Automatic annotation (TrEMBL), chain A:
The keyword Membrane applies. It comes from the Bacteria. It comes from Paracoccus suum. It is found in: Cell inner membrane; Cell membrane. GO terms for biological process: amino acid transport. NCBIfam families: HEQRo_perm_3TM. This is Amino acid ABC transporter permease. Belongs to the binding-protein-dependent transport system permease family. HisMQ subfamily. Its main location: membrane.
TrEMBL record, chain B:
The chain crosses the membrane at residues 20-44, 56-76, 82-102, 143-167, 187-205. Residues 18-206 form the ABC transmembrane type-1 domain. It holds the Pfam family BPD_transp_1. Signal peptide: none annotated. GO terms for molecular function: transmembrane transporter activity. Its main location: membrane. SUPFAM superfamilies: MetI-like. The keyword Transmembrane helix applies. It comes from the Bacteria. It comes from Paracoccus suum. This is Amino acid ABC transporter permease. One of its GO terms (cellular component) is ATP-binding cassette (ABC) transporter complex.
């Protein structure tokens, strides 16, 4: 074990880690937002639009993320979509996440007891108010574990961005490996980083779940 | 211009490469099932040490991305003097990773088996091994069936990553064809649709199997 390597490559590794975390946050937040919009539109969409959205979701869920990135990054320019690696990577993560998040939100909406919606309607709430004050809060509580779960899966998908040369942690360690052949050190960095990263997010998720369902517990 | 001719010309080659995609995901899943059953047995055993080993295994293989695991195995095995073919190493890595997920699936399924089953088996004097192999595991496998089909679909998609270590499955093949024809959009879309077809077929087969196992 050569500790000097960590000093020499420290800044590059730190940059890679920062990039990984930034890509993950961007992909998760944007993917969740797009997924939420898709889930909302799908509820009231005319039939043709509903089919298009279902086909979109099935396509994203049925194909590997790596291939989707290749289509976007290498195939995109052929239809005038010329993106740098980083925007392409974040757009890829967003589209990928949106399909899964849309399904999670759909299941969440389905889990809202219809009695609550009927009660709100009987009390004369407008549809928009029912959605905002009744359906969405109840949906978020039941969808939270699945949302956290998929966000964790997305952390691991970020390494695939290295395949289209986004300078994240995998890319940084790849460079370190190519220059020094220090196999053990680089792998250690990667494995440890992801282990800690995932552990922190799952703890955070459990804490969020406890807070969100706190009111359900008997006092 | 979108060229359908490129797609038609290269479709057979791509589909033929699909046999490696299937081979790696099916063998990986089978290996994962075997190792996963062992890890699951460790996790539900009474021994503290066994439980800890299982917990560390699951947390490591689920926490570290498969791409990292693949590179790890590919650089590490020659380092400790093991020269095994790339395909074998890929299957083993995919299997080890799948085992972590499958052991959790099996654990959930075991919890779903009514307690009375185990108690009845103890009461009629079956050995612990018989209880495990003849009472618990067969039922757990049946309960876990839908989740296992799901896992296989995930593995088909995950197998695209073994292209990185040079195994010529669908993704690697499409990379070479895209480089040779300068038609990345058509080729990668074709590859994507091949994966989609495989996964839709698996999902369809899984639903039929489920219905047959339902009674």
């Amino acid at each position: 074990m050569d500790w000097g390597l960590f000093v020499r490559f420290g800044p590059a590794l730190a940059q890679g880690i920062a990039m990984t975390i930034a890509c993950w946050i961007a992909g998760t937040v944007l993917g969740m937002a797009l997924g939420f919009v898709i889930a909302l539109v799908r509820r009231r969409a005319p039939r043709a639009l509903g089919w298009v959205l279902t086909a979109y979701i099935e396509f994203i869920r049925g194909t590997p993320f790596l291939v989707q990135l290749f289509v976007l990054y290498y195939g995109g320019p052929m239809v005038g979509l010329r993106l740098d690696a980083l925007p392409a990577g974040i757009l890829g993560l967003t589209l990928y996440g949106s399909a899964y998040f849309a399904e999670i939100f759909r299941a969440g909406f389905q889990a809202v007891p219809s009695g609550q919606i009927e009660a709100a309607r009987a009390m004369g709430f407008a549809p928009g108010v029912i959605l905002r004050r009744v359906e969405v809060p109840a949906m978020l509580v039941s969808a939270l574990p699945a949302l956290v779960n998929f966000s964790i899966i997305l952390t691991k998908e970020t390494v695939i961005l290295s395949m289209i040369t986004v300078p994240e942690i995998m890319f940084a360690t790849g460079k370190m490996m190519a220059e020094t052949f220090a196999f053990v050190e680089t792998t250690l960095v990667l494995a440890l980083f992801f282990w800690v990263f995932v552990e922190v997010i799952s703890r955070l998720g459990r804490w969020l779940e406890r807070r969100a369902t706190h009111y359900l517990l008997e006092r | 211009m979108f060229s359908f001719k490129t797609i038609l010309d290269n479709l057979p080659t791509l589909a033929w490469a699909g046999r490696f995609t299937l081979l790696i995901s099916v063998l990986g899943c089978a290996l994962g099932l075997v190792i996963g059953a062992v890890i699951c047995a460790l996790a539900v055993s009474r021994s503290r040490v066994a439980q800890t080993v299982a917990a560390i295994y699951v947390s490591f293989f689920r926490g570290v991305p498969l791409l990292v695991q693949l590179l790890l195995f590919f650089y590490m095995l020659p380092l400790i003097g093991l020269n095994i073919p790339a395909t074998v190493a890929a299957v083993v890595t995919v299997g080890l990773c799948a085992a972590a997920y499958i052991s959790e699936i099996l654990r959930g399924a075991l919890n779903a088996i009514p307690r009375g089953q185990r108690e009845a088996a103890i009461a009629i004097g079956l050995s612990p091994r018989d209880i495990w192999a003849r009472i618990l595991m067969p039922q757990a496998l049946k309960i876990a069936m839908p989740a296992m089909v799901n896992e296989l679909i995930l593995l088909v998609k995950a197998s695209s990553l073994v292209s990185v270590v040079g195994i010529v499955e669908i993704t690697r093949m499409s990379q070479s064809i895209a480089a040779a024809t300068y038609r990345p959009l058509e080729i990668y879309l074709t590859a994507a649709f091949l994966y989609l077809i495989i996964n839709l077929a698996l999902a369809f087969g899984g639903r039929r199997l489920e219905r047959r196992l339902a009674y």
